[in-house]
Amino acid sequence: MTFIVAIDGPAAAGKGTISKAVAAHFGFAHLDTGLLYRAVGAKTLSDIDPIEAAKTLTPADMQGDLRTPEVAQAASKVAVISEVRAALVDFQRNFAARNGGAVLDGRDIGTVICPDADVKLFVTASAEVRAERRFLELSAKEHDVTRDQVLADVIARDKRDSERKEAPLKPAGDAVTIDTSELSIEDAVAAALSVVDQARG
Ligand code: CDP
Asked: Cβ(85) to ligand 1 under 6 A?
């Protein structure tokens, strides 16, 4: 049985938390596609060519702390390169087609990677709420950041991700939007579970 849940949305909207909860609830596998772009971005910080990095990516490249603001910016810069995106397509589609169900979260899952996904969610929240959540997350990991820096990072990435030519960040026409600005984690997860439940029939 294949069953594909596509979860897209802007930076730090809560896609990761919701994706993990949906995957755990239904016993599906989960792929955070942002990590692929972060791994490529991280390699460019050591002067490796982004297209070469994307073509030769291995699981080992996904290790280590890729959730830093520097790597996030590098990720969104390599994500505009069409050869980088193309090199990552097959891995994502193969993952989605696995037996037993899959949740993929990113920016273009419902629009480009899995346009026939069984469920498409677009998870969003105001830039201020998203920046505050990411600030708390980074501070808890002892990253030396300010609220203003994190907000600027979120806004810059959203702009680059939405304005790029290839696979821009936008909701699929048939996606269900969940705005988590005023939702608790529990309520956001419950909203997502109920959409998936309905689609499973
Ligand atoms: O966790 P957060 O929402 O901050 O970012 P992420 O999902 O880890 O993605 C990092 C960057 O990778 C994004 O800003 C995008 O530029 C890029 N990305 C993409 O272009 N397509 C995807 N499917 C996933 C991520």
From this structure: no
